[in-house]
User: Fold these one by one.
Assistant:
Number 1:
Amino acid sequence: MPQKGLLLRILEHDTGGKIFLAALTVVAVLLPVLNLAVPEGSALHVSTYTVTLLGKYLCYALLAIALDLVWGYCGILSLGHAAFFALGGYAMGMYLMRQIGERGVYGNPELPDFMVFLNWQELPWYWFGFDQFWFAMLMVVLAPGVLAFVFGWLAFRSRVTGVYLSIITQALTFALMLAFFRNEMGFGGNNGLTDFKDILGFNLQSDATRIGLFLATAITLALSYCVARYVVNSKLGRVVVAVRDAEDRARFIGYKVESFKLWIFVFSAMLAGIAGALYVPQVGIINPGEFSPLNSIELVVWVAVGGRGTLYGAVLGAILVNFAKTYLTGALPEVWLFALGGLFVVVTLFLPQGIVGLLRRRRRKAGLKEAAT
Amino acid sequence: MNPLSVFGKRRRERARDTAGAERHTVTAGEVDVSHGPILYLENITVSFDGFKALNELTLYIDDGELRCIIGPNGAGKTTMMDVITGKTRPDSGTAFFGQIMDLTRMSEYEIASAGIGRKFQKPTVFPQHTVFENLELAMRADKRVWPTLVARLSGEQRARIDEVLEIVMLMAQRDLRAAELSHGQKQWMEIGMLLMQDPRVLLVDEPIAGMTHQETERTAELLTSLAGKHSVVVVEHDMAFVRSIARKVTVLHEGHVLAEGNMDEVQNHPAVIDVYLGA
Ligand SMILES: Nc1ncnc2c1ncn2[C@@H]1O[C@H](COP(=O)(O)OP(=O)(O)OP(=O)(O)O)[C@@H](O)[C@H]1O
Ligand SMILES: [Mg+2]
């Protein structure tokens, strides 16, 4: 089977990736059974709440892969990557808004409630087309992609790097947050977009739809992982790492460094947009808070904790940190931010390669011992 | 003979300016060396905060020539290479690659693709890549983004990389990360990267620092063998080494050419003895 051959070739030498994809497959097969087929009273039953929570983690994992591509592989520390996630989320949210139709509080078939509330008479032009699923999906990748392209083109061409680049990415997401807070922008102001009813005709409140969304997320994550692995395994991937380690050298052997940075940045932004689009129907809301600079910083912590430059490390970090966050914000809400800060300090000081680096070191040591005896 | 007297004789004549001269047919990307020199540096001045690292430097390198550049620390040798490769823009003066390529208007990657390769004074390699991958990245190829994404090594290309690995004696280190190489090995690997690029002009800044006597000899052999097919510009402090390879030597001092000629002429030049060899 050529398909299988391709997959095996992509995952060659990627033990971490194989483990991750195997685990993801097991979860994707078991979860629907445990949620839909096992009766609610049973100890084995998995609640829909948990399914949605896990689906959310998988979206974060995809977002973490996106950041790992630019930060771990290309050395561009973006502190605004949540902006691309949010844009993808808004594109999906606009589709879901239009699906509500007459079922809104005001019963307007054309206009979402918040527009009726603002006394708007007609749909703004940039909402056109979002009643079509395909158009919305196109925007899910195009909106973040175009923003990343314009931003990256300006920044990389003027050779903005390092801390300065990080700061302007942070400024970018902050500016977008302020813009989306404004009611006149036409994206629902600080309430954002919510009260979604259905997606492609399926009721968003039903367990089956929830499972469907979870599976769609798992499949997208797996596919994206493979595509990202293909990219970093390609010669382009090696150039990108070369740019990270010795940017000037890459120039002097004939690579137009700006173009490579731009390519990986735009690709990453599109992945982040897809993650956002999968996230919104599961959590049921998108608001300007998603642009918050803090979100982007948390994202950096996930990747740092898991270990950058490995892809599966980013996945691991995203899931572990968010699991801890869910637990802590439930048990000791005031502690979370301190825990996050502490985690970052600890990882930076003691685990520069994150958990994956730690595991690798362990294994190498074990290997050495074995060789010695 | 006063080595300075050669100046002015060979000003670069641009094809389009030369009235009545035969028409040059120049394919895009090809270097036009029909007038002899491949590199023309004329009246180049580079200043850093008022300090002139290069001061009205004028220098020509012939196609296929092996040229040694010597000069005391801070003479501007590295800065000259920075100007040629687009790293530093001159405040004034012109730098041409062949008859028509204006180096001062080209970016680093364009200059590299046009056929000027460089080995840095301080070895700069890709530390996280293996020796093989370092050579692969340097290899002459379509280096635009999309072709790079789908690029696959052909058997021929693999063979070429292996061949270069043999030349630079790094076959055994093929799959070692470059970070793990010794200083001398890194020097060799950079030379290997230069070979992979297959450039018209090789700029080699202090190639033998950190090399053993034997390695130095091999470097001399290699550089001499490259001349002819390529133009090679070598900056080096080691006089014995320069003597062993030099045909023509240029002495730089305070950002301009002090003397030019064969090793003996240069060494007996009073000004040179004064500022450099005598010191
Ligand atoms: N980026 C820079 N900023 C300020 N001064 C510089 C810069 N680059 C070079 N210089 C100065 O210009 C002068 C020429 O430097 P250059 O590196 O070209 O000398 P060199 O001939 O290569 O010397 P060496 O033999 O030590 O390598 C030196 O005095 C150096 O300090
Ligand atoms: Mg120097």
Number 2:
Amino acid sequence: MLDYDEVTFDLEYSIKEGGDDWLLKDLFRSKPKYVTIRHHQDATKMEQPEKTKKELPDGLWAKCDECNQIIYHKDLEKNLKVCPKCGFHFRISAWERIKFLVDTDSFKELFPNVCSSDPLNFPEYKEKIAKSRETTGLKEGVLTGTAKIEGIYLALGVMDFGFIGGSMGSAVGEKLVRLFEYATEHEIPVVTFATAGGARMQEGILSLMQMAATCQALNRLAEKSIIYISILTDPTTGGVFASFASQGDIIIAEPGALIGFAGARVIQQTTRQTLPPGFQRSEFLLERGIIDMIVNRKEIRSTLARLLRFHQRRNRVV
Amino acid sequence: MGNGSNYNLDFEKPLQELEKRIEEIKTFAEEKRIDMSEEITRIEAKAVTLKKEIYNNLTPWQKIQIARHPKRPTLLEYIDLIFDGFIELHGDRLFKDDPALVGGLAYFNEIPVTILGHQKGRDTKENIYRNFGMPHPEGYRKAIRLMKQAEKFKRPVISFVDVAGAYPGKEAEERGQGEAVARSIMEMAKLRVPIIVVITGEGGSGGALAIGVGDRVLMLEYAYYSVISPEGCASILWKNASDASKAAETLRLTARDLLDFGVIEEVIPEPLGGAHRDLEATAKAIKEAIQNSFAKLLKLNTEELLRMRYKKFREVGRYIEE
Ligand SMILES: [Zn+2]
């Protein structure tokens, strides 16, 4: 399970795109959203079976940063990590996303061995990777594979914000490109869940090139008239938004997600403009015509199923 | 004398002092009507040696200072010297014309081509009009329109990159800056005509890549191309933007580095002292490099071209399989 305190502490750096710096601090708004409250009297209950332990953070209660509601973890989990009181969408890990989304046991991971190298010999990069691996249990910032949603077979890519801010380096780019190529070859629809600060600074120009690599792979998918649905979750910014994530045939966002190209801090520093409340949130993007719809986490599975079914080949008349 | 005299490159200080002394001696000799030509020749030779010494040992950060020099030639100056009969075309047909991104038609050695590029201003007034060469979404959408027009009429595209970054502003976000950048990358990747990219100054991240996807990417010697500005990187790494010089080394963003990584195909040498000291020589070097690229690209049919373009961006990343 992801420890957001840890992540915030570890990732106090910005990911920058297009001359813009994304401070992860900004992405975390004021405070980490996921505050765990230790319950001393329940210390014995902390010794939970291995499986439960992985799924739940330490402590039995979580506090919603939006409405301050104290929520019992099991209830939060049951509600797909959406606050039952105010509807605030907590950030979730890639594995949680997959668990909430796909038909039971249908996810088959592809390309699990593609990992980051350190081509620039960048200060503290190896340590950051090691730490992210430890906190997320992932080898890289994206999980790729095939799965079924209501019986419909698809290629699925899910990013994890806990892995160096979900940033896209060579390995994340390579896994996504392979996924798109796999889907092109097998003629299956593609769904991605983006959550990222942007391109990964630690791999310099090679990270930037992944924007082109992923986009061009989507072109090949399009040539075969295969649907690509992009789901933007909190936060999706910088070079990830400015590449594959904004190029879905259909673009869906979770409510309240921060989505944009440049960071608010950079915009304010550069332009001295005051930014309206709700700037760069899903609702703002819908109004500006940048996304197709906002869908609550609970309805994403059924929405995807409807859209995928709609695009099945046997439905075509031309 | 260099023409950027009000923008001081620190590392040129010894050179500037020497040049100043030459001027002084010349003035003195003229006033006093003394022949000091021998002395002048001697110091001038020393200045040339010093200049070579300085420019052969530039650090990445010094190169960036040259790339950002306010007198660094801009696209419109290059167009005059490299192409014939330029006709500028305006607008994205959706919102407005973006002066930060210039496009149009011209002949390159009698070949009709479409030209695109970032356009910085040459003084403060022009820079305000050009938004310091940082496009809004409409700039990239104009680029897309002109690229597709080039494809329709089967002429090559030559794209010039010189940008600190796509503009980070409220309106830019409202109009979908991220989408515009991504869409431009998508369109360039599949454009069915040859594309030559020339990075002439700053290659600022996504704002540069948006018009930087090509069959051959050429880069001036002192230009740089990076995922993040060295200042931004330094403020993250060392919480101090003044460590930018260290960050510039770390990021491997010089033309030489990018050639090693396979991100670009060719480094175009600049005149001694940088492009701003000799516009014509720089333009000539760019023209030759474009010509050589054409010779290579025009031999390929469209399918080969697209296959190679795909392969290049497909394989540039460096990862391991464990
Ligand atoms: Zn709440």
